[in-house]
UniProtKB/TrEMBL annotation:
Record keywords: Cytoplasm, GTP-binding, Nucleotide-binding, Protein biosynthesis
GO molecular function: GTP binding; GTPase activity; guanosine tetraphosphate binding; translation release factor activity, codon nonspecific; translation release factor activity, codon specific
Protein name from the UniProt record: Peptide chain release factor 3
NCBIfam families in the cross-refs: prfC, PRK00741.1, small_GTP
PROSITE patterns given in the database record: G_TR_1 (PS00301), G_TR_2 (PS51722)
GO cellular component, one term: cytosol
Family the UniProt entry places it in: Belongs to the TRAFAC class translation factor GTPase superfamily. Classic translation factor GTPase family. PrfC subfamily.
Species name: Lysobacter concretionis Ko07 = DSM 16239
Subcellular localization: Cytoplasm
């Protein structure tokens, strides 16, 4: 097997999806601990603590801070290389989250045992559905009282519409939590506070029939456990790898992230069964991760990671081949070679300059605005990866300057910030307005704040008569010209110079569509 194939097959690239407070940060930290990236784990915690202590505004920035430095975390485990891609926490950043989920091969869903399936989890699950992303489930906070495990499985099945296959099963919960049974190996792991850090540090019995186990928990608890396991095995689905890989079934684990409990069982199972990098669709063909030539796509841009240096990093998911430091890659959209100098990898405790990287890994590419979200890279083949959309924003504001002399900086700032993908920026054909579109209202505040902090521009955002947008596409040049002439007052260019229709009302949009049957009005812009 080639080096490239071998390395690709070792990779496990995933994201954690959960409702806020279910324990994503804590679990991330523990996974990193098990992966040996202890310093990194400490810093996740430190940042989070700092975030809680500060004002709302700073909280936002801190949150950004977290997603900046820990947006990709890589660690070796059990002969595999695990890449954990962070998803932004705030609900307003749904689009960003969506795009991160296009860059992973599987997901881990964290559920709070007391709260069950919550709203944001439902939304994230819908996104995973679109690509049949395989999902493992961790039911967290078993050290507290919560819903009955059987009831929770029912809830996941009925609300999320996915079959549950419990892999571990809790013995009690809250104060009565004694441990978990591994339903596939039969092993019992005892719950002991302040321990469970490694297998050596845990008390493990080979099965519930081990007399030492009975001696430890007593005949009454054991008899109840036997009854419960019989019930569970009758009422739930056995684990089936194929069903998990096709997104029909989710293996379920129980534990307590804050107590390290049940986490290693999850990680062991994850590296064994979670999918390695999968083939990816392009407009012309599917790209296999074991192909020798480097390909990848950009799913996220982060500008001004360090405001002093105005740096800007594009995050590229590698889809095939091998990256080596300093190599050149073909930037398909511009048709130019781009030297991938100083590309970053995200190994262990810090960002590092990449030496090599393979399918499933993420590279951070420094650039000055030439690279956009959705861009494809190759070694020459004009491949365009599909499925990394921009959504039509739902809220609009006109940017107004307090100091009109700063127009240039404002334009630059808005353009650069919109490249990060959270907001979109439109320039109407017929006026000098600068219109900003966002999916959530918080984003306008973020932009105003960052314009001031990073570009020295004092801007306010005022209401504007736009209620929705559509990207315009038309194969017929003449018809497009005609459409453009007739609708000029409603048309604008986005940051990538694509034509967009700005509709003041839904009715106006509907009429415009009816009057121009040859023109396509698209609610998402796939970057092609
Ligand atoms: P996130 O918002 O999903 O990232 O959640 P966090 O990891 O920040 O956790 C939210 C809160 O739940 C924090 O106060 C954690 O300490 C707490 N927490 C996390 N895991 C557990 C657990 O296993 N048991 C208990 N009792 N609390 C937990």
């Amino acid at each position: 097997m080639s080096d490239v194939s071998q390395q690709a097959l070792r990779r496990r690239t995933f994201a954690i999806i959960s409702h806020p407070d279910a324990g994503k940060t804590t679990l991330t930290e523990k996974l990193l601990l098990f992966g040996g990236a202890i310093q990194m784990a400490g810093s996740v915690k430190g940042r989070k603590a700092a975030r809680h202590a500060t004002s709302d505004w700073m909280k936002l920035e801190q949150e950004r801070g977290i997603s900046v430095t820990s947006s990709v975390m890589q660690f070796p485990y059990d002969g595999r290389i695990v890449n954990l891609l962070d998803t932004p926490g705030h609900a307003d950043f749904g689009e960003d989250t969506y795009r991160v989920l296009t860059a992973v091969d599987s997901a881990l869903m964290v559920i709070d045992v007391a709260k069950g399936v919550e709203e944001r989890t439902i939304k994230l699950m819908e996104v995973c559905r679109l690509r049949d992303t395989p999902i493992m489930t961790f039911i967290n906070k078993l050290d507290r009282e919560g819903k009955e495990p059987i009831e929770l499985l029912d809830e996941v099945e009925s609300v999320l519409g996915i079959q549950c296959a419990p892999v571990t099963w809790p013995i009690g919960m809250g104060k009565r939590l004694k441990g978990v049974v591994h339903l596939l190996t039969g092993e019992v792991h005892l719950y002991e506070q302040g321990r469970n850090f490694t297998r050596q540090d845990s008390t493990i019995f080979p099965s519930i029939d081990d007399p030492a186990f009975e001696a430890r928990i007593g005949p009454k608890v054991l008899a109840d456990l036997r009854d419960e396991l019989e019930l569970v095995q009758g009422a739930s689905h056995p684990f089936e790898l194929e069903k998990y890989l096709s997104g029909e079934q989710t293996p379920v684990f129980f534990g307590s992230a804050v107590n390290n409990f049940g986490v290693q069982l999850l990680l062991d199972f994850f590296v064994k069964h979670a999918p390695a990098p999968q083939p990816r669709a392009t407009t012309t063909r599917d790209v296999d991760p074991t192909e020798d030539k480097l390909t990848g796509f950009v799913f996220k841009i982060q500008a001004n990671m360090d405001p002093q240096h105005r740096d800007r990093v594009a995050f590229m998911r590698i889809c095939s081949g091998k990256f080596t430091a300093g190599m050149k890659a073909f930037h398909v959209r511009t048709g130019k070679e781009l030297k991938l100098a100083n590309a970053l990898t995200f190994m262990a405790s810090d960002r590092e300059i990449a030496e090599t990287a393979y399918s499933g890994d993420v590279l951070g590419i420094h650039n000055h605005g030439t690279v956009s979200i959705g861009d494809s890279f190759s070694e020459g083949e004009p491949l365009i990866f599909t499925g990394i959309p921009n959504f039509a924003p739902e809220l609009f504001r006109r940017a107004r300057l307090r100091d009109p002399l700063k127009l240039k900086q404002l334009q630059k700032g808005l353009a650069q910030l919109s490249e990060e993908g959270a907001t979109q920026f439109f320039r109407p054909l017929m006026s000098n307005d600068l219109i900003l579109g966002a999916v959530g209202v918080l984003q306008f505040e973020v932009v105003a704040y960052r314009l001031k902090a990073e570009y020295g521009v004092d801007a306010i955002f005022e209401p504007v008569n736009v209620s929705t947008t559509r990207w315009i596409r038309c194969g017929n040049e003449k018809k497009l010209e005609e459409f453009r002439d007739k609708n000029a007052s409603h048309l604008a260019l986005d940051a990538a110079d694509q034509l967009v229709y700005l509709a003041p009302t839904r009715v106006n949009l509907q009429l415009a569509q009816e009057r121009a049957p040859d023109v396509e009005f698209l609610a998402t812009r796939e970057q092609a």
